[in-house]
C-alpha cells in the first residue's frame, strides 16, 4: 500500500504555546464578585444637596428658583369657530360620499339580489344592468358638483370669515 505524503505535521501538544503543559500550573481564577473593587453605584451621579435651611429666625428665606416662562403667542381664533368649520366640512363630505357610494351600493345590491331585473332588456334592447352601470359616471359627476356647490356655499364663507377674524386678531396683537 502506497501512502501519499502529508503536508501537515501531526499535532504536538508540547509545541503548542497556548496549551497548558501542566494543569496544576495553569493559572485560572474563577470570577469572584467580592473581589471586584467597584460597585454598580460608583458611576451614579452624586446626590443632590438638601435645600438650604434657615438656621436663624431673623435670616430671610432663600429665594425661590427662577421659573422659565414660555413666550406668549397670540391666540389663533376661537376653538368654537374651528368646531363649526369642522362640522360644516364633515356634513359636506357625508352628503357627497353618500350620493356617490349610495348609488354604487344600490347597483351592487341589485346585481346580487335582483339578477332578473338587471338582465331584463330596457330601452332599445340594452340590458337594464348596463344602463345602470353607465349611469354611474353622471352620478359621480353630480356628486362632485354637489361637493363643490356645498363647499362654495357653506364651508368657504365660514373659512374666509374665520381667516379674516384671525388676521384682525393678529394685527390687534401686533399693535399692542
Q: Helical segment tally?
A: 4
The averaged pLDDT comes out at: 77
Number of strands: 0
Uncertain runs are none
Rg calculated over all Cα atoms: 43 Å
- Give the H and E element order: HHHH
Helix percent band: 40-55%
- The gross shape turns out to be flat
Q: What structural class do helix, strand and pairing data support? A: mainly alpha
Oligomeric composition of the shown chains:
single chain
Terminal-residue CA separation: 111 Å
Largest sheet: none
Question: How does this model look, in words?
Answer:
The protein has 176 residues and is an all-alpha fold. Helix content is 49%, strand content 0%. The protein has four helices and no strands.
Topology:
Layout: H1 79-113, H2 115-119, H3 128-134, H4 136-175
Helix pairs in contact: 1-4
